[in-house]
Amino acid sequence: MTREVPAGTAVPPLHAWKPRALYIHIPFCTNKCFYCDFNSYVAEGQPIDAYLDALEREMERTVAAIPPERIETVFVGGGTPTVLNPAQMARFLASVRRHFPLAPDAEYTMEANPGTTDPAKLDAMREGGVNRISFGAQTFDNGLLKTIGRIHEADDVVRSVANAKAAGFANLSIDLMFGLPNQKLHHLQDSVSRALELDLPHYSLYSLKVEENTLFHRLYERGELPLPEEEEEIAMYEHLIERLTGAGYGHYEISNFARPGRESRHNTVYWRNEPYYGLGAGAHGYALGRRHMNIKGVLPYIGAAQERLPRLETLEVSPEEAKEDFMMVGLRLLSGVRGADFRNQFGPGERLGERFEAPLARLTEQNLLERTPDGEGYRLTRQGVMLGNEVFGAFLS
Which residue in 47, 98, 152, 258 is a FRET match for 252, CA 20 to 30 A apart? Predict the structure, then answer.
């Protein structure tokens, strides 16, 4: 959703842009997966209706503080937003429409766990404006699903996708993970084959990261987490690239593959370092030169939202920091970063190649970056894709 400015038009600085993207966090889920460090809580016994009340109060205060012009993408994440029952779902989605002006062609994504989207819930989602669903499949191996703490089985993924298609959803995605405990290359090969049989427009493929405050981290610290060797994990990633691109999917971001025109418009806002609203417990937002993080706990969030915007912290982002962010997240896209986008965000006199001359020269010499076809941008080489974190870190001052 790169903001295009006609030639000759005065360009307001990035810090003056109003967000056209909206993220909303529903922190409830059916259970806590062993690898998950997201701000999520088991739904049983939680004050879900009171949370939705608080969320609407945050919406009211947010649009009063930064009145929206037009919202082009919405992403509802979690947690598992589809733990809401149909009535709660309808109520929540109606509140979004009341407060935010959605573009007619807005991309409206909701995360879902397989097995949590019955026909009544899917109907409520469709009626409320959702037009894209991202299912957390993770693997099609039932043994590995148990190992990572998932409560669905592989067949639930197939049924959930079929139900979503029957309900009229055409824009669907699933997540797969690799580098899981005891996972072998043949496990991944089978999961990719089963995923491709679903013939979806989008796939996200992530390597396991062992995060603090998770069961997996505690096991890792005790030497009880049997992770694949680095060479096998690299082979898994290479296999994913080969299979997905061979099936006609564009490898448009390090972890994402899509049919033409089905790339995630919302996530591209993040990768282009453009502003977005962030609402809900623990949500992050970026607008008018400030990044914020909301209070995480459900009850503290509800209490704070009664009185004010429920912020945990708000940080000013300097233009120099924003430029570094532009490079670090923008280079995740296989199309790379464009000089025109850099000028569009930071001013007509700004030159990407001049601002980052030293790291760009070094990374190009190391064959981790190359020039884009227009000659004024940069993108990862194949070797750079495999060593992405090394590339991104080079732009931190």
Answer: 152
Q: 3-class DSSP state for residue 217?
A: helix
Distance (Å, whole) CA 148 – CA 133: 22
Judged against a pLDDT cut of 60, whether residue 312 lies above it is answered with yes
Residue 365 structure tokens: 């010499």
Q: What is the Cα–Cα distance from 381 to 371, expressed in whole angstroms?
A: 9
Asked whether 58 and 234 are in contact (CB, 8 A), the reply is: no
Q: Which pLDDT does position 38 carry in this prediction?
A: 87
Tell me the whole-structure pTM to 2 decimals: 0.94
Give the integer Cα–Cα distance in Å for 26 and 301.
12
In the numeric block, the tokens 């607008």 are attached to 287
Residue 125 one-letter amino acid: M
CB-side neighbour CA atoms (13 Å) of 247: 21
The whole-angstrom separation of Cα 57 and Cα 65 is 12
CB atoms within 10 A of CB 338: 20
In order of 46, 60, 207, 263, 310, the CA distances from 54 in angstroms are 14, 10, 34, 32, 9
**Dist. CA 134–CA 202, nearest whole Å:** 9
Q: What is the pLDDT of residue 5?
A: 42
Q: For the chain, list the domains and their CATH numbers.
A: 14-271 (3.20.20.70), 337-393 (no CATH)
Strands in the chain per DSSP E: 21-26, 28-29, 41-42, 71-78, 102-112, 132-138, 171-178, 202-207, 250-253, 256-258, 277-279, 284-287, 290-294, 311-316, 369-371, 378-380
Cα separation, 239 vs 188, whole angstroms: 9
Question: What residues pair up with 277 in beta bridges, in sequence order?
Answer: 22
* Percent of the chain's residues with pLDDT above 90: 91
DSSP-derived 3-state class of residue 300: helix
Compute the half-sphere exposure of residue 93: CA atoms within 13 Å on the CB side of its CA.
26
